[in-house]
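R.M. (postdoc): so does anyone remember the format we settled on? I'll just put the structure tokens first.
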């Protein structure tokens, strides 16, 4: 039996197991494992445990336990107090040993499976902090991307609104160009008739002409230019005004801001006269061309915008729309008189 123990011991060493490792795997006490390796089978509790322990030991180290028992004297030596038992008892014990050994043969495999599962859990616990950190980084990156996309969409919407306001200004200018040309034609004919009348008066009497000129001059000085809203023309996008007693030349639009800043465009005769930013500290005066019948002032920040035509303050309406178009129509009779 000592050869059996040596063979089992060598197989254990080849597997790289220590006695403590074998005890942990098979759950057989260390002293019994040493007794098997040293051939001291009489130290085991009895025949039943001798057969079971040898088979389990052999299976754990990769040997055939049943073949080993047959090779070394068929059946292991009996333990103390077992020599006088009958054949019938030995047969029943052999059957019990066979059944128990089958159960024991399944135990190491389940233990190995449990050990593998435990090993996987340990590995998962080891990498768990890294997995959590990677997850947090991914969430942060996605959050930054979402904020960036939202900001770009908001900027795009704002640019679209400003473009729409610019288109409205251009459309209003085009729609007024036809009216301007008709008014200019009418103004030209009025100028011609006025010129004829003046020539007739001059030829009749120099004194009368001189008195008439002085009377007109005093009349012009005493007449003040007025700016009033045209009823029914106010919309969310702007307001139309009528300018009376408008001088024939040297007219200016004075633009200022109460606070912050505003973007302003001035269009006359279909041509942009000026556009730029106006602040409280940097007002702007725009010279208007002579002979115009209307002009348009567009403000990109209406609540802070202030307007004057020459020295006359324009009362601007309040509106929820910050982009406003202010259209000024020069009264026909005033334009003719000033010529």
């Amino acid at each position: 039996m000592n050869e059996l123990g040596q063979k089992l011991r060598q197989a254990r060493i080849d597997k790289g197991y220590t006695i403590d490792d074998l005890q942990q795997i098979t759950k057989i006490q260390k002293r019994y494992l040493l007794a098997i390796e040293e051939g001291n089978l009489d130290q085991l509790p009895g025949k039943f445990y001798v057969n079971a322990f040898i088979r389990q030991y052999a299976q754990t180290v990769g040997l055939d336990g049943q073949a080993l028992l047959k090779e070394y004297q068929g059946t292991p030596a009996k333990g103390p107090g077992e020599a006088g038992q009958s054949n019938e008892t030995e047969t029943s014990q052999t059957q019990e040993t066979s059944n128990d050994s089958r159960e024991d043969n399944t135990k190491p495999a389940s233990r190995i499976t449990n050990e593998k599962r435990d090993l996987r859990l340990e590995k998962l616990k080891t990498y768990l902090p890294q997995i959590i950190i990677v997850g947090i980084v991914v969430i942060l990156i996605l959050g930054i991307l979402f904020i960036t996309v939202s900001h770009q969409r908001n900027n795009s919407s704002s640019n679209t609104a400003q473009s729409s306001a610019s288109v409205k200004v251009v459309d209003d200018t085009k729609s007024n160009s036809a009216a301007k040309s008709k008014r200019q034609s009418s103004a030209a004919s009025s100028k011609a008739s006025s010129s004829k009348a003046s020539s007739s008066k001059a030829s009749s009497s120099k004194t009368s002409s001189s008195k008439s000129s002085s009377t007109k001059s005093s009349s012009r000085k005493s007449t003040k230019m007025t700016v009033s809203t045209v009823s029914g023309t106010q919309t969310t996008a702007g307001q139309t005004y009528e300018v009376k007693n408008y001088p024939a030349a040297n007219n200016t639009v004075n633009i200022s801001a109460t606070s912050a800043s505003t973007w302003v465009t001035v269009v006359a005769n279909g041509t942009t006269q000026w556009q730029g930013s106006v602040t409280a500290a940097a007002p702007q005066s725009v010279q208007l061309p002579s002979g115009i019948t209307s002009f348009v002032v567009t403000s990109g920040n209406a609540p802070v915008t202030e307007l004057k035509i020459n020295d006359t303050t324009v009362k601007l309406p309040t509106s929820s729309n910050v982009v406003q178009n202010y259209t000024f129509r020069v009264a026909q009779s005033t334009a003719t008189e000033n010529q």
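R.M.: ...and that's the designed sequence above, right after the tokens. Also worth knowing: The CA atoms of residues 120 and 143 lie 33 Å apart. The beta strands are 226-229, 238-244, 251-257, 261-268, 271-279, 284-288, 294-299, 305-309, 312-314, 324-330.
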